[in-house]
Amino acid sequence: MIRVELPQHLRTLARVNGEVTLEVSGPLTTRSILDALEARYPMLCGTIRDHDTLERRPFLRFFACSEDFSLESPDAPLPEAVAKGIEPFVVIGAIAGG
Amino acid sequence: MSGVRVLVGTRKGAFILTSDGKREKWDVSGPHFAGWEIYHMKGSPVEPNRIFASQTSGWFGQIIQRSSDGGRTWETPGGEKMPSPGSPPAGQSNKFTYDTSAQTGKPLTTHQWYDGTQHPWEFKRVWHLEPSLTDPDTVYAGVEDAALFRTTNGGQTWQELSGLRGHGTGPEWQPGAGGMCLHTIILDPSNPDRIFIAISAAGAFRTDDGGKSWKPINQGLRSQYIPDPNAEIGHCVHHIAMHPQRPGVLYMQKHWDVMQSGNAGDLWKEVSGNLPTDFGFVIDVHAHEPETIYVVPIKSDGEHFPLEGKLRVYRSKSGGNEWEALTKGLPQSNCYVNVLRDAMAVDSLDKCGIYFGTTGGQVYASADAGDTWAPIVHDLPAVLSVEVQALP
What is the pTM of this model? Predict the structure, then answer.
């Protein structure tokens, strides 16, 4: 099982508290995590990535093991610590100043 | 009537206010969808406990919520964890895709941008939801960038009525300061094929064939500082209201000017009369008196607050021109809030109730058609929309 940490707004929408745990088959990538997340929580479709292009929404970022994977290929492998459930995959709303 | 339910959309969530027919004591429920912008909520006239809400965010996009129990619980239509066999794909209820199919004849891809160049149509959010007068599963949605969508399955999927964008003037539409939004949808109760809509800053439009074809209805509007003040399109219409018993009579709060049309928008005349300023956003009609109308004058387009710091509703009992200030119970000093275009509503009780919300987070109500007012809730986030339902 892998762990996913969602921003508060999406936890409210998906009606979950704290982290989400998911079973992901195959290589662990941003794409495979989001595929599994949206399959389990369909109301999140379109809120993290575009319905059709599957591109990341502009003001969201993806982190794993304190590294920013937002600009990496969605098919790039994620750290083993995420695959083992030691560290969460973090979806975060971009932080604005002010 | 046993009571009323006021649906309040704010910058940081939805609130539902309920009272009995006296409308003196109010229960406040919320925030629902805390942290999200709720642009609009509205109940089905056919099934009042069925309420639709537009939940939106600059970060996370558009969500459509639906309640079947008067707002106590909510669901994302089609977003259930285990879609039933034969149902549309899960997660489609928040998908608004512009129609670019060949069947529309000439799919539109661009409109005018601020600098005069052409700019692609980009979906941003749903501003207004208008449930059908006859079918609880049919709802119209006015969106930014301006277009009209419809669901016929209770919000699970949405399709654009592309005849509006495709009728010919679309490439000339351009955004107002708040974006290029379709914010007003009025269904004609006497003619199911007739719909009125309004767009900032394109103007008002009407269909007489259920949304297949549209025409601009802006003759008589005059807007200074657009290239042609009397142009067919390009006017910043802020809101339109209609009394259901007189569907051919429309009232409009334009950017500046309060207007009236006696022929379903074919020709407008100004009825600002003795208003101290005719800039504003809201306009509404008394539930039982088709010629009694309400506006909240705002100082100017540069200063979005009441004149002299006095929050005043103005009422005309003659369809405009002659206005009286309604002040009893409203702050008459140091008040610098705004009242946004979808933030006024009337109930159908006797006497007619009038409600409006402010950017300062107050919702004011009058249970006597505007003669006296009281805040029924205050210190909410900035109010974006107010709707009211009279409950059996």
Answer: 0.94
A54-85 pLDDT per residue, tens: 999 989 999 999 999 999 999 999 999 999 99
**pLDDT score of B198:** 98
Q: How many residues does chain A have?
A: 98
Instruction: Name the residue among A81, A52, A53, A85 with its Cα closest to residue A67.
Output: A81
The domain limits of chain A are 2-93
User: What pLDDT digit, counting tens, does each position of B246-272 carry?
Assistant: 999 999 999 999 999 999 999 999 999
Does domain B46-337 fall under CATH 2.40.37.20? My reply is no
Topology given in CATH for the domain delimited by A2-93:
Ubiquitin-like (UB roll) (3.10.20)
Give the angle subtended at the CA of B130 by the CAs of B129 and B135, to the nearest 5°. 125
Whether the Cβ atoms of residue B355 and residue B337 lie closer than 8 Å to each other:
no
pLDDT digit string, tens, across residues B4-27: 999 999 999 999 999 999 999 999
Task: Name the strands in the sheet holding B3-10, side by side, starting at the edge strand that comes first in the sequence.
Answer: B27-32, B13-20, B3-10, B383-391
Question: ipTM of this model?
Answer: 0.88
Q: Which of residues 38-97 of B touch A (CB under 8 A)?
A: 57-63, 76, 78-81, 83, 90-92, 94-95, 97
Chain A residues contacting B, CB < 8 Å?
7-10, 12-13, 38, 40-48, 51-52, 57, 59-60, 93-94
Asked whether the bond before B145 is cis by omega within 30 degrees of 0, the reply is: yes
